Structures
1.
Amino acid sequence: MTKRIVVLPGDGIGTEVTTEARQLLVEIAALLGVQWELDEGLIGGGAYDQTGSPLPEETVAKCLEADAVLLGAVGGPQWDNLPGDVRPEAGLLGIRKRLNVFANLRPIRTWPGLMLASPLKPELLEGVDMIIVRELTGGLYFGQPKARVEGGRAVVDTLYYTRGEIERVVRRAFTLAQARRKKLTSVDKANVLESSRMWREVVNELSVEYPDVVVDHVLVDNAAMQLVTRPNSFDVIVTENMFGDILSDEAAILTGSIGMLPSASIGGDGPGLYEPVHGSAPDIAGQGVANPLATFLSVAMMLRHSLGYPEAADAIEASVLAVIEQGVRTRDLAGSGQAWVGTKEMSQLVRADVQRRLA
Ligand SMILES: NC(=O)c1ccc[n+]([C@@H]2O[C@H](COP(=O)([O-])OP(=O)(O)OC[C@H]3O[C@@H](n4cnc5c(N)ncnc54)[C@H](O)[C@@H]3O)[C@@H](O)[C@H]2O)c1
Ligand SMILES: CC(C)[C@H](C(=O)O)[C@@H](O)C(=O)O
Ligand SMILES: [Mg+2]
């Protein structure tokens, strides 16, 4: 059956990396001999400029009918002074909510060829292979009220969770851990936040149903430290929306660059949403130097989780590994004095390798 994929390029380097990923998808479809319908939609600052909304209803409708959605990134300084509800980021939060993708999987591994691209000592990076399960449609990002109050002299953001919202994402994390090294680290701030105390309670209650999984609870400040002092001790991490956002950018350093970190947002009845963890990178946008690999690896996750082509997903991951091992680097991965290639050349080399593997 024809699969429908909607690409939402967004802003800044989002458009550059999704152009390459779209090409990768077109080539893979040809190699697999399948027909995929590829469509595009507006989101973010560009969507606001064209339609007055960072998430036009037309985009939502297209996504709801798709089998999978690939998103680049949104945002940029030109939209930073807009009211919160029409900022580009509101478009991103909106599509996550509308697709009900409450579990954001952010796998973090080290690549043998890239140990020196990380500022951490190579011996610390040996064997790092973890996945952060970030709650994505609740918590501090979505709780109401969220407003200036008392005539602008005070402000409130709300961290709100229902027990059910915590339970469903924690269950995903337990299931993932069962299929991996059976270790689940729940990260919270239970020494201060009531929401975290409930989070911890739910994790402990559910742990009885997953007796083969070893659970520990780590406070988020300590977790931030342990991510760089003993990163290979983690298997699956599950945490609240904002904690997960912050910890995953920190964990990007383990891989060498945020340009290497993919993600899959799943859990809804509709399509999964696949996006690199990085943003629109206004500092390098338009220069052709963005690393497209986080988006390629997100395409691999899409092929595995939403489209049912695990062998094509394996091929992409193997090709990324191979090209890196050949010494090819984008600028973010290159050491000082080391040669690097632009977005298009990296894309072309990986795509050529994928072609060889799937031919
Ligand atoms: N998923 C998303 O759409 C998303 C995620 C994060 C930030 N943002 C938005 O992006 C804008 C910029 O945010 P920021 O600067 O804090 O974060 P960012 O991730 O865009 O950039 C942080 C740093 O990493 C570099 N970088 C990021 N991706 C890269 C890539 N693929 N290749 C090479 N280098 C890369 C950038 O050049 C920059 O120096 C903001 O408007 C923010 O809201 C969007
Ligand atoms: C742009 C922003 C709203 C977004 C988030 O915080 O979820 C980003 O940082 C991410 O990690 O996907
Ligand atoms: Mg982030």
2.
Amino acid sequence: MVTEVVAALIWRGKEFMICQRPAHKARGLLWEFVGGKVEPGETGEQALVRECREELGVTVSVGEPFMEVTHTYPDITVHLVLFHASIVEGEPQMLEHNDIRWITADEIGQYAFCPADEEILERLRQTYANQKA
Ligand SMILES: Nc1nc2c([nH]c(=O)n2[C@H]2C[C@H](O)[C@@H](COP(=O)(O)OP(=O)(O)OP(=O)(O)O)O2)c(=O)[nH]1
């Protein structure tokens, strides 16, 4: 069985948002893109709007998918879709996360991410590293 997970790629200038998972959850203290599991009856976009309200207290507008990956962990196989998204209301708060950072593509190597994100991060590096503006 594959668990559908959605996440948001949110930009602020040339920086994007990453969030540190709480210690008590699976993949605790690893970094991720804000998001979570799609619940029955929800579209991916609806799930992402809900997760961003629950976890950051913001309303997002969801755009096109940037990339999707499937990854098997010992406890779960996830199909993760990362959407471009932007905050249309609110300031991000750490309602669930241990920490939130805004980083450039050049800084990706400084953080330990969930293993499922590795391919996505590689593409982010290729697409956005060494940005001048
Ligand atoms: N949100 C998010 N989850 C990710 C990413 N990469 C990655 O492997 N995951 C994994 C971690 C979790 O095993 C799963 C997401 O589940 P979650 O535990 O965050 O979901 P949820 O907020 O709905 O939480 P819960 O109801 O199960 O407690 O996907 C990512 O970039 N963002």
